[in-house]
Amino acid sequence: MAPKPKEFKDDFWKTKDFKISIGDIIQKEGTESTDEPLVPMGPTQKPNVTDLRSWDMKLLERYEPFYAPLCDMCCLCTYGKCDLLGKKGACGIDAAAQQARTVLLACCIGSAAHSGHARHLLEYLIDKKGKDFPIDMGTGIDIEAPIMRTLIGKTPKKLGDLKEALDYLEEQMVHLLSACHTGQEGSSIDFESKALHAGLMDNLGKEIGDLAQIVALDMPKGDAEAPLVELGIGTIDREKPVILCIGHNVAPGAGIMDYLEEQNLEEDLEVCGICCAAIDITRYNKNAKIVGPISKQLKFIRSGVADVIIVDEQCIRTDVLEEAKKNNAVVIATTDKMCLGLPNKTDEDSDKIVSELVNNQIEGALILDPDKVGEVAAKVAMKTSEGRSKVKVLPDLDEVVELAKECTECEWCDRVCPNSIPMMDAVMAASKGDLSQMQRLYDNDICYSCGRCEQECPRDIPIISMMAKIGEINLQDQKYNIRAGRGPVQDVEVRRVGAPIVLGDIPGVIAFVGCTNYPDGGEEVAKMAEEFLERNYIVVTTGCGAMTLGEYKDEEGKTLYERYSGSFEAKGLVNMGSCVSNAHIPGVAIKIANIFAKKPLEGNFEEIADYILNRVGACGVAWGAYSQKAAAIATGVNRWGIPVVVGPHASKYRRLFLGRTDKEESWQVNDLRNGEIVNGEPAPEHLLYAAETIGEATVMTAKLCLRPNDTSKGRQLKLNHYIDLHKKYFGTIPEDIYKFVRVQKDIPITYKRDIMKILDEKNWKPRKLPQEPSLMDMKGD
Ligand code: SF4
Ligand code: SF4
Ligand code: SF4
């Protein structure tokens, strides 16, 4: 009998870089049959909370947690409140550990949101298609589930196989959440290690969710030519009954599209969405439309366009019912995550539910059956739409001016705005008939319509409703195209670009992800993406970030999706899909390690992460990260060795991972080719970095694509972009450039003279180039 995976202890795996062909080593754990191909199994199949701790310690030693406490108090137990400023709490915890505990809690919440979503989807799809429904991603994708293969050590063949991975991650999440209890973990570093584990579980949960929906709902399978779909408030035909889906779970939206198709009603109703539910519905059926990212939510609800609002899970306004009531829209809640106090009508006859909703006998309904949601939503929308269109929901433009005149210039709106927006000036301008300031805040999502200012206004000025009305002035222009989410990168694409990425000829892979609480609107993000596309980087994107990139047009009226190819190649703009599709970002880095470098995946997390950290020039940009999911996503990709640049609001997550360039010893690497420990360089310099301005973010992103493995040609190219961008935004050659020149051949020709001058000043000496840089097998391992 083949040895159990864990019997291959460290000594075997410390010889990390010899090549093993699939099929050489052992039988997969849990497989009885000898017919199944044998796979090599690494040391960490189904890693427990502490199994990857030694890798975390390597990361955390190099990238020290930097805490920016948002609050010095803890009020988690009845010993408290405890003031932790320079003191310990009554349970003995100190401020750093408490901050790290809060980070872990956020990562647990975010990760649970994704895995709860995945669990819902999987149960629903197994119910619909059966547990034996094949996981077939088409001929272009052999590595269907790179994260699962690395962590679980198995390739899922059928929908039912995904359950094992979910069971595993749910068990891990219970342990992680339990560590947040009073009187458990007391070390900030160990809390961080657990947060990294929570992030990793987040990655796994997303992969399970997206894989299940791609195969069972026949979404694009890595299709670079996925269709362009409509995006923007202006694309919604307001003459038709409108169903709006808000949230992240495709199932209710798919139920609606199916019902419309069955009943030949596709032309008669509009189905649109906000947030990732929108993206995923368009992956399922291109006739659906995307209103936009989360920043559109309150404005669009207030506009009264939607007759029926379907809410599923995550990032939905919790006062949606109250808001919908203001304009007689009907709310249907569809998951156990958000029941809103509504009566559970899941088992009732559809027509009876419709009648109760239309006649206002119930204030909304909880329906946990996505197919029933489809029928009820369509029938209610058709019955209520005509009557509702007579309801005047927004003030007209004259009324907007009159309402603005109520302003007493108390400045409360400015003070409470999380984005420090000068709303009072905009309101005062409106009171004089000048609506341009409010329109500017609306058009570019500079105001992300959280509604705090309106809540605080002592004059009850309906600021969001006024903005929604002003936004209608140029409704016709708010029409865009976005490429439907294509899902993962195909293996064949990885084969084409793996070498140029690892060697540095393609300067980097930049992932634009996250929410839309941008400090100064979304246009900056689109311009940043354009900057990198023009410089031959590969740009990938998901979720609200993907929508933001679609909301800006060039002078010819084309969006980035219409200007750049959807292929995973230099100058390609790859919309992978929704939040759960985020899993394909570490997924493609894992595929590079496997396909290009032949690194075995199964049970082999640390070697794969080490490869990515040292050799795959990828960097995430979450300029508007807002939710706990974003915290989990960033922390998860960090554990794979992918750095992330976040926007200024992200300091509210409380923790960054910053490299210390002054500590030379922390940048040493092991050259696996000869086992020599050599002085390295701060590449990548940080794992999680908060930038204040878009210029700083752009420059840092280019810098964080540097990897110790770059060839001199690749390094020249990367440094060229780093310097170019630094000059563009700061007007100078970066002062730290000497740290990234290893040998003279690394110096970009265009800047040679300037750089040589800096090198002389710094008494620079050439360094040895490691052939196979690694953090593994360093002293202390
Ligand atoms: S958990 Fe500890 S720090 Fe927090 S309130 Fe309780 S005793 Fe105080
Ligand atoms: S809605 Fe929120 S983001 Fe917009 S101005 Fe008001 S407080 Fe600021
Ligand atoms: S809070 Fe209201 S009254 Fe005060 S400045 Fe803002 S809009 Fe004017």
Automatic annotation (TrEMBL):
CDD domains to which the protein is assigned, alphabetical: ACS_1
Alphabetical keyword list: 4Fe-4S, Iron, Iron-sulfur, Metal-binding, Nickel, Oxidoreductase, Repeat
Residues annotated as binding [4Fe-4S] cluster 2: C74, C77, C82, C91
Residues engaged in binding [4Fe-4S] cluster 4: C417, C447, C450, C453
Cofactor binding summary note: Binds 2 [Ni-4Fe-4S] clusters per heterotetramer.
Catalyzed reactions: CO + 2 oxidized [2Fe-2S]-[ferredoxin] + H2O = 2 reduced [2Fe-2S]-[ferredoxin] + CO2 + 2 H(+)
Residues annotated to bind [Ni-4Fe-4S] cluster: H248, C276, C315, C515, C544, C579
Amino-acid positions noted as binding [4Fe-4S] cluster 3 in the UniProt annotation, renumbered to this chain: C407, C410, C413, C457
One Pfam family in the UniProt entry: Prismane
Protein's UniProt keywords contain Nucleus: no
InterPro entries documented for this protein: 4Fe4S_Fe-S-bd, 4Fe4S_Fe_S_CS, CdhA, HCP/CODH, Prismane-like_a/b-sand, Prismane-like_sf
Keyword DNA repair: no
GO terms, biological process: acetyl-CoA metabolic process; response to hydrogen peroxide
SUPFAM superfamilies, A to Z: alpha-helical ferredoxin (SSF46548), Prismane protein-like (SSF56821)
GO molecular function: 4 iron, 4 sulfur cluster binding; anaerobic carbon-monoxide dehydrogenase activity; hydroxylamine reductase activity; iron ion binding; nickel cation binding; peroxidase activity
Cofactor dependency: [Ni-4Fe-4S] cluster; [4Fe-4S] cluster
EC category: oxidoreductase
Annotated positions binding [4Fe-4S] cluster 1: C71, C75
HAMAP family assigned: CdhA
Role summary: Part of the ACDS complex that catalyzes the reversible cleavage of acetyl-CoA, allowing autotrophic growth from CO(2). The alpha-epsilon subcomponent functions as a carbon monoxide dehydrogenase.
Record comment regarding domains: Cluster B is an all-cysteinyl-liganded 4Fe-4S cluster; cluster C is a mixed Ni-Fe-S cluster which is the active site of CO oxidation. Cluster D is also an all-cysteinyl-liganded 4Fe-4S cluster that bridges the two subunits of the CODH dimer. Contains two additional 4Fe-4S clusters, dubbed E and F, that probably transport electrons from ferredoxin to the B cluster.
Family from the record: Belongs to the Ni-containing carbon monoxide dehydrogenase family.
Name assigned to this protein: Acetyl-CoA decarbonylase/synthase complex subunit alpha
